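Example record

Each entry pairs one chain with its bound ligand, zinc ion.
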Amino acid sequence: MKKMYPVTKLACTLACAAMLAYAPAAFAEHAEAPAVPVKSAEATVKAAVNGNDQFTSHNDSHHFDAFQTGQTPTLTVVTCSDSRVHTQLFGMDPDNNIFVIRNIGNQVKTAEGSVDYGVRHLPTKILLILGHSSCGAIKAAMGDYSGESKGIKAELDTLKPVIAAGETSGELNARWSKNVERNVDYQVKAALELYKEKVQAKELTVVGAVYDFNDLYGKGRGKLVITNINGETTPNKIMDHPVLKELNRGEIVSHVGSLAPGL
Ligand SMILES: [Zn+2]
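Structure tokens for the complex follow.
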């Protein structure tokens, strides 16, 4: 039987492994995470290699025919490196369809070249900035991260304007969740500055959303909640945006929301 760790030890283990939980206590705030098996390094490599064998057995060589010499994705996503967030949330085959940039706190400016590639070179018509529930980067940026490495500090410093725009008092988890959304707004704003001409020419739509596996928006765990389209953050106005016109009203209502006023 695999060894199970208590929550406090698990939080510490995840902090070391994921490099995102700079403050393990930060993760304890939503600490209803079940204990999970902890794999050794050897078992982890074996799982990755065997998993790849399963992948190639389920996808014969024809799966790769369409993208032997180039890629044709339709969606650029800037999201967090967090291990709980993956493109499977979109329910579509990500291969050759989704161009993904990941970093702590789903930031645009710290990965500008990569985002440029998706938006200017491929180019995709949608740029999605995707934050997520209980983001460790946001939590860390709200606290004292002076003891972190130079690299981590540099990528948290760029979140300071987001934290400065939020409440300074009140219940921590509520402020944290709002700051996740504020960060999405902040990153959308940064993208709109970079790609102003493309947006004005209707060649690009910048969508901000939160992957809500905590069900903080009341739409259900795991829902993609759209909180911003081209800088518009009022839900009723987002709902009328033409980019959503192929969705029915029920689909729109269940995927548009807001916890915090827009920046
Ligand atoms: Zn995160």
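Residues 80, 82, 132, 135-137 surround zinc ion (CB under 6 Å).
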